[in-house]
Amino acid sequence: MEPFGSLRISVDAVSGRWYDEEGLEANIEELNSAISDFEEGGRDYTGSSVDSLALYRRLIDERDQLLDARHVIGSEEIARIGMGDRLRAGVRLSRGNFSTAGHGLFSDIDMGEAGETWDVAKGFASLQYLGPVRQVILGNYRLSLGQGLMVDNTDELMKRTLYRPWGLNPDLTSTRQFAFTGGAAEIRAGRFIGFGFFSSAPRDAILNSDGTPAALVLSRFRTSQQADAVRETTVGGYGIADLGGILPYGTAIGAGVMNISWSDSLSPNPAEIDIPGDAEPWLCPEFMDMPAGAGMRVFSLSGQTVLGPMSFEGEAAFQDDDGSAVLAGARWQNDWFYLLGAYRRYSMGFTNPYNRGFAEQGRFDDTIFDKPYYLNDPLMGQMADWPVPKPEEGLYVESRFQVSRQVIFPKVYLDVWRSIPWGFENYRFQGEIEYRPVFPVRFRLKYKLQDKTKMQDIIPTNSTTHEITLRTFILPPGNDFFEVSLRAGAVELTPNPRYSDDRLMTGGFVSARWEHRFTEGFSALGGTTLWTTSGMSQWEFEDTGIDFLDGRGSKIYLTIKQTVSDSLQLRLRILRKDTYFPRTGLYRPDPDDQYYYEGDGSSLVRDFGDHRAGYGIDCQLDFRW
Amino acid sequence: MKQILSVVLISQAAFAAGLPGILLGDGEWSGAVGARAFAMGGVELMDASALGSLTNPAAAASAGPGITVQLAGGMDVLVEKRTRTVYDSFESSIGEAEHAFNRSSPLIPGGLALTLSRTGGMPDALSIALGWVERASFGYSYDRTIRNDYYVTTGEERLEIDGCVGEACASAAMTFSDLVTVGLGGGWLSGSRDTRWTRNWIDPSIPDTDEASSSDLSGMVGRASVVVSPREDLSVSLGVEKAMSVSWTGDSSGDLELPPRIRAGAEWLPGNALRSRFVAEVSYYAASGAEFDGSDMGMRDCWSACAGLENHIPGGPACRFGFRYDKSPVSRALDSVSFTGGMGFSVAGMRLDAGASFTPRCWDQQDIPLLPSFADDDTLGVEETVTALRISASRAFSL
Question: Which of A69, B133, B174, B276 is the most exposed place for a label (fewest CB within 10 A)?
């Protein structure tokens, strides 16, 4: 048996000034602001459970760790090997741009230079097709079963999707916080499919001021305080019975249980999160029901069947503390049309961290965690990225419809949901139509409408979003591909004098890209985007990911891709992004409320232009043998 | 060698109130000397050319019979913006205001080399390379008009740095079989640096600043390398170089003790329709062991990695591109990545190559120890880009 394998080396370097609302610089500034607030006596923890001195020291230490992360260049190395059709193994070492690594590569192990170069290590070894044992995996693995209500251990919550990788697979992805590390097996015997799994892995958590873990967190900036704060042990099993033949083919039912335990009891306490007596009251029932104690147990029942052109599937999950979740979907399909419907309901108490069910919002979307300046420790704002659905109940309908060869509705959907914490009704509609007058030319027009209500101190506020996008694709005969996109968006808000009484935020961009293939294995892709926004930042898909656009600006990029041979592929990319923020009208009559230059508190700044130039240089090499 | 120069310059900075142009402009890696290798990620060990033979002695064996002459030079386009952070009364940053903007384009002398192989009664197995190579050159200027709140000029500030370090070197390669070639080389290192920093104030009660320094560098460098070709389409190379008896004289003087630098690289010809040539190289330099006058210089161990590709577009010129990562011996803030590219032509029996690299960096002045202050409390942020352009020409003469 000849061994085979692959090695991927990629460097994702950014330089210059990059800024986004949740980025490193923003978090450093939030920490600076919180420290300053402390030092100027802006906080009063009298009568609070918060150890203010410990919190102050923590803020300073976290700020220093983030400062140290400013120039970290991201890299990733992935190696896989295999032999025959039974043995597979792989290793992944990585470190993200601007990531802290105060905790080292492995907890409590000094790895020297390696601990500075990488901060996440993953690996696996697997054996497959051993009689009824379909596969056994030791190391890191991903397990996704049913509708993802009981277990789908990924760091990402895919919004509005019923489809996910199903089953047991080795895991060398970027998933870190929810990675399972241990062993798992899949058994197939007759009509029975069984999964058993065990994991013991460190988990990040936000801490109370006395050092006890408050809640698990998907931390983007892993300070030594948050990183690996608790060890989680997960064990479970799932069984599926294939009833095809007895009942219609495609029919199956399943049931499973998963037990999660933490080495240190979680103690979510709002007093440790919210700054006492500040301008923003504590309005976050989503946090009140977060897991407390040393563990939880989750049970699941699932089923599916196919009846002619229709399929039905669903899952119900229950926690041992009465939390519950239900998701049911149906799909009818023929050659030119499909109709998909889904119903979901997640109770307030369903806090299973591995729930990745169909959802419109994350658990802490539109909560106080979106505003880190109202938190004792601004880094607790990372709770906003917790990839678990918000407690919500909703009905979703989606369709694709081919009217003719020239006219297609690629995707049209309507989601109507109720946010359970406050009982607000929301909806989101998106429709897209494609017109293809001749084969190489396509026009796609997309419209999005969303209406959401958010709880505030006295009365709730409402936002209505409109977004329209026109995309044109041209594939002339030969080796070229052109795309031009135009987007305009607006958000209608409930005005507030604290934010200049703004009623409307707007934003839009125009982008173009061109890919030319010189030979079968050698191509170059170039693109540019121009944008302007007034409060409504925009997002755009690039060739390798998503980019957020703020202020007004432009960017240009070039990507070179070459398949040098069957055993080597190379990809290089360079990008420049310019963003402009005119800062005018900074005059303040109050001498104690002035803008000033760092290090020169007596200086007065009345206006200036902030021009941010950022560069991205990426390289990816893929070897195969 | 660039790394050696980097440390040399850093020591100068440390002991003679050195200035950032030296330390950060070109004091670190400035690329392979030949434009062909420069365009392919700046590989130095895997630069199969006459100039490359001065860095990788074993590469001299790749020269054809007769004499090959190569000449190279270029220009660095430096753009630098310095900014000051603006804060509100809550100590929150609201942006960066421009403080100074500088641009300069110093010429880079490059180098001149020739190789001799299988000519004039030389043994077939022996190849020789001779030449002069610019190992680092630097030209940096900073100027600013200082004004008060009423736009009235209150002073002028100016900084000028220039200098060059070159090496007269020789290499010899001995080919023992189709499999192994061994090379030895060495050179005499010499250079100088001049700096002047002035601040002139309109107000005569404020003392002006006028600081100037001039220093000369000299020393020797030894190199050894081996090239192994296990297959026709693959060769692997390993090299080491060590600077010896290096010292500064002049306004700052002292001996430098510098650790060796190790390089390894590979070249692969995959045999595709584009007649591609893939090269990759890594190097390691234990800079933490560097000493100036017996004192630890406080450097970090550093390494670099680069890779590049050359394609021959049917009916067109050679097309090259590459990538490079350099870990700085000074600070993580100065770690950098570079994107490189270039083209090559054959004209009237001569090979003409052009290459370019682009390197952006962004750091805070406070990140780098020992830098002079251009603003109160050293709060300036620095955004800089270096666009380096190189051209080289070579021609082979059979005797």
Answer: B174
What CATH number did the domain enclosing B272 receive?
2.40.160.60
Range of the domain at B353: 2-397
Element (H, E) at A203: strand A192-203
Please give the structure tokens belonging to residue B119: 């000519």
Nearest one of A204, A229, A231, A228 to A218, comparing CA atoms = A204
Q: How far is Cα B368 from Cα B335, in angstroms, rounded to an integer? A: 12
C-alpha to C-alpha distance for A427 and A424, rounded to whole angstroms: 10
How many CA atoms within 13 Å lie on the side-chain side of A195? Answer: 24
Q: Is the pTM above the cut of 0.95?
A: no
Are B325 and A13 inside 8 Å of each other by CB?
yes
Whole-number Å distance between alpha carbons of B337 and B328: 11
Q: What is the pLDDT of residues B291-342, one digit of tens each?
A: 888 888 888 888 899 999 999 987 789 999 999 998 888 888 888 899 999 9
Domain count, chain B: 1
Return the residue of A nearest to B270 by Cα: A565
ipTM exceeds 0.90: no
Three-state SS letters, A514-582? EEEEEECCEEEEEEEEEEEEEECCEEEECCCCEEEECCEEEEEEEEEEEEEECCEEEEEEEEEEEEEEE
* A–B interface: beta-carbon pairs under 8 A: 147
Whether residues B379 and A613 touch (CB distance < 8 A) is answered with: no
Query: Which residues are CB-neighbours of B86 under 8 A, at least 6 positions away?
Result: A583, A595, A596, A597, A598, A605, A608, B93, B94, B95, B96, B97
